[in-house]
Amino acid sequence: MFTVDTSINSMQNKSFTSSYLKNSLFGPSCGSETTNEDGECLICLDRNPNTVLPCSHAFCEICIDRIKECNKNFCPLCREEIKKDGNEDLWSIPDLPEYSEIQNYMLSIVNDTNKDD
């Protein structure tokens, strides 16, 4: 039997790690099944998937454009329709800076703050 007390206890016993939260919040459709082990687009196996369809599957922009040019206006994984003129429904993911760039930026902020003290 499900009660509020048992659900609270089970929540308290769970380990809320970042991987648990990522898997439970985003599920398998947000990236894991749209990339191979190297993080490449499943269509061309070359580029990073930087365009997210309304169904939450992501592929590289070039492959999405080729799909549209061939009048195959549906997601290759789940077959959900991609509107022909619906670019506003597509999300583009910009390239993130490298870890070293972020680290250098953060160090420069700390150094600037220390100079002012």
From TrEMBL:
Gene3D superfamilies listed in its UniProt record: Zinc/RING finger domain, C3HC4 (zinc finger)
Instruction: Supply the InterPro entries for this chain.
Output: RNF141-like, Znf_RING, Znf_RING/FYVE/PHD, Znf_RING_CS
Pfam families, A to Z: zf-C3HC4_3
In Gene Ontology terms, what is a biological process of this protein? Answer: protein autoubiquitination
The RING-type domain sits at: 41-79
Keyword Transcription regulation tagged: no
Instruction: Extract the PANTHER family matched here.
Output: RING FINGER PROTEIN 141 (PTHR12109:SF3), RING FINGER PROTEIN 141-RELATED (PTHR12109)
Full protein name: RING-type domain-containing protein
